[in-house]
Amino acid sequence: MRRAKGAAHLKGGFRLAEATAAAPEVRPLVPHLTLGETRDQDYLNGSICKNCNAKYVGPRLFCGKCSSAGPFETVRLASTGELHVFTIIHQATPYVQAPYVAAIIDLDGGGSVNTNIVGIEPKPENLKFGMKVKMFTEKVSEDKEGNSYVAYRFTPA
Ligand SMILES: [Zn+2]
Questions:
Q1: Does the residue 4 lie in any domain?
Q2: Is residue 69 included in any domain, yes or no?
Q3: Containing structural domain, residue 89
Q4: Is 13 inside any structural domain?
Q5: With 65 labelled, which of 5, 23, 35, 119 sits at a CA distance of 20 to 30 A?
C-alpha cells in the first residue's frame, strides 16, 4: 500500500517527504517566549493594554490595572531588568534540584516576570533588590519525537 504522502521519490537514496515530516522542531517551553533563529535572538513577548498602557508578560485578556478587556497589543519585552523580589527555595518538588532562587524581575521598559536566577550560589548575600539581571535561553528538555524545548532564565548582568 502506498502512503498518503505518495510523492516520496527516492532522491539521492533519501525519502524527502518522510524526512520533512519527521524533522524535529525547536519550541519554546512557554507561550510568552518567542524564539529567534539563534538563542541570542530569543525574547519575551508581552501585552500592552491600549486603554491604560499597563504592560504585561505574555498574552492577556483582562487588565488588572484599569479593569478593562483591553484591547491588547502584543509587544517585544526587554531581556534586561532589575531584581524586584526573590526567595531561596530549599524544598522543591521531586526531580527539581534545590536550593534555587525564585524571583520577580521588573523588566526595563515595563512588565514583570516570574523566573529563576542562575549563575550564582543561591545565598542571600549574592542577591540585592534592584540588582541588574539579564535573560538567557537554553534547551531544557526533549520529547520522544526529538523536539527540543527552550526555556528562559535570568542571571546577574
Ligand atoms: Zn488597562
A1: no
A2: yes
A3: 29-156
A4: no
A5: 35
CA of 48 to the centre of ligand 1 (A): 8
Cα separation, 63 vs 57, in Å, equals: 12
SS3 at position 1: coil
- Span from the CA of 144 to the centroid of ligand 1 (angstroms): 41
DSSP state for residue 78 in the 8-state scheme = P
Using CA atoms, how far apart are residues 114 and 39, in angstroms rounded to an integer? 20
Q: For residue 69, report the distance from its CA to the centre of ligand 1, in Å.
A: 8
Q: How many domains is the chain partitioned into structurally?
A: 1
What digits encode the pLDDT tens for the residues 78-129? 999 999 999 999 999 888 889 999 999 999 999 999 999 999 999 999 999 9
- pTM of the complete model: 0.80
- 56 within a domain of the structure (yes/no): yes
